[in-house]
Amino acid sequence: MSATLVCANSQNQQSTQVPALPIQQQQLLLRQQLLGCDGAATVPNMLIEDEVHGVIEIPSHIEEILNHEIFQRLKRVKQTGLLSLAVNPASTQTRYEHCIGTYKSAQDLLTALKRNSNYERELPEWCRQSVEIAALLHDVGHGPFSHYWEQVCGKSFDHEQNGLVCVDKIFADMKSEILRSLRDDNNGRGVQLIKALILDKSELLTYPMMGHGYLFDIIHNSRSGLDVDKWDYLRRDNKRLKLLSDEDMQFDDVFLKARIAPDGQRIEYRYDDFHLIYKLYMARWRLHIGAYQQPKALAFDYILCKIVRRCKPHLLDVRADSKEWLDLYDDHVLQLIDCDPLTVYLRSPERWIESAPCDGNNEECVCVLRKKTAPGVDMHSDESYPLYGDPSKKRSFDRLTTPTTISACYTLQ
């Protein structure tokens, strides 16, 4: 792995290449090299070693966000919830890692868009910063066990709406001039854009985007479903789950070859890569069938719901504006519900024995039944994807549209 880090003073900027070394040695080498930049020590940017992206350079204003206690909480929230307990012990990746990876993915997509586009409107620096921070904070409002917590709380909990409270609380504490400018300048236009991008609601803005509407295709793209959130979590989760081959995951060009549409309102994808969009959705579907919606994982979710609702129902009302929020993370919730006789089964997957269907009246028998939509249905219609290039290079493919039934019963022993 390698990273490019910047040594800068008020007069000029100079890139310093750091060779492929362990992260601690890279930090030391960087400090030694920075001493020679202008004869005085310069504080280097933070480096993070990431299993998907390699070494990620973190500028000082982003480091300030990472160090905030609300963001640090994400280190204790697993990306795939109870999956590491129920099915795959290796699936211990966290929302902290995913958020940083999504930040890097947003940087990569913005770089690709600039490289591939002949678009005259330059993206203002405050807009670029807002996009990167929206990617970083897009999941900051997740509850314990990530999406599992939304099942526990039902429709009363929305991690994105909750995340907007987190954004405000984080920015209220920021000291960086860059972050304070995003918060305070021009009626807080930067923080406005961050929130609007997280929700994918441009109508929240009090100003027009002036030819940069395509930014709403980057973080939370409800228009076509292609965004940097998916781009990171599919790669990150498969790194741990090891369900899909390298060939199955070859869809990076969907993003790396994308460009800005001539009117600046959308991101366009190549005709050459249209079949790779389906490959992305096929990969997502296979991760759902092979991991996220494994019957035992769904059964664990059911048991967690039952325990929390009867044992600690007040947790269902905890939000980011509560003093309890920082302590609402996976291991602490498991500690709080440890008194319930069913909690032992969340820690002992070997005591779940697949069995014949039961009548539902026995607490020590759990049955799950769910239908997972097919990738050909999850993928949006062809018209949802603005395409450019040579139409003859658009490959045809057959969409899988038959849903998959997921069912099993378990006896708890």
Automatic annotation (TrEMBL):
Give a Gene Ontology cellular component term annotated to this protein: nucleus
Question: Which Pfam families does the record associate with it?
Answer: HD
- What GO molecular function annotation could you give as one example from this UniProt entry? dGTPase activity
Q: Which Gene3D superfamilies match?
A: Hypothetical protein af1432
Q: Which InterPro entries match?
A: dGTPase-like (IPR050135), HD/PDEase_dom (IPR003607), HD_domain (IPR006674)
Biological process (GO) annotations? Answer: dGTP catabolic process
Q: Which residues form the HD domain?
A: 95-234
From the record, give the transmembrane residue ranges: none
Give the family from UniProt: Belongs to the SAMHD1 family.
Which PANTHER family did the record assign?
DEOXYNUCLEOSIDE TRIPHOSPHATE TRIPHOSPHOHYDROLASE, DEOXYNUCLEOSIDE TRIPHOSPHATE TRIPHOSPHOHYDROLASE SAMHD1
| Name under which the protein is recorded | Deoxynucleoside triphosphate triphosphohydrolase SAMHD1 homolog isoform X1
Which species is listed as the source? Drosophila hydei (Fruit fly)
